[in-house]
Amino acid sequence: GALYITPLLIVLVLIEFTDLVFALDSIPAIFAITTDPFIVYTSNVFAILGLRALYFALVGIIHRFHYLKYGLSLVLVVVGGKMIVNAWFGEKIVPTEIALLITSGIIGASMLFSLFKTRVEPTEEQLNEAARWWVPGSPPKAETASREKKGAEES
């Protein structure tokens, strides 16, 4: 048989390229923690393999983590500050263990504050807003359900 390049192949190549870009984007953050090439390489491989699966897992519960984006922003500031301080003085001023404790504390606190804020069940409108924010261009659940009903009625 003949091989054909279909639009699906182009989409697959673009998705994998995006995964690669995101993995390469995380290299500076990894170097803030360690300079061991094996750890840097393997962590990026696992990032490429797990990024898409983690995305779909998070889409279902992201409405509960309102403050997570602020916590992650603060983590980037801490990692950048650690890299600048260590480069400025030419030695390890901020130990890796302290940086990891600060990072995990920030992420944990942002998750706890988020869970405390969203301890009540979300409304349908909040769920639709969360889905629209995390899945750009996706229709709200009500529109999807009405389309499915129309399709079933027309059949």
Automatic annotation (TrEMBL):
GO terms for cellular component: membrane. Residues 133-155 are annotated as: Disordered. It holds the Pfam family TerC. InterPro entries: Integral_membrane_TerC. It is found in: Membrane. Residues 144-155 have a biased composition (Basic and acidic residues). The keyword Transmembrane helix applies. It is a multi-pass membrane protein. Keywords: Membrane, Transmembrane, Transmembrane helix. It comes from the Bacteria. The chain crosses the membrane at residues 39-58, 70-90, 96-116. Belongs to the TerC family. This is TerC family protein. The lineage of its organism: Bacteria, Pseudomonadati, Thermodesulfobacteriota, Desulfovibrionia, Desulfovibrionales.
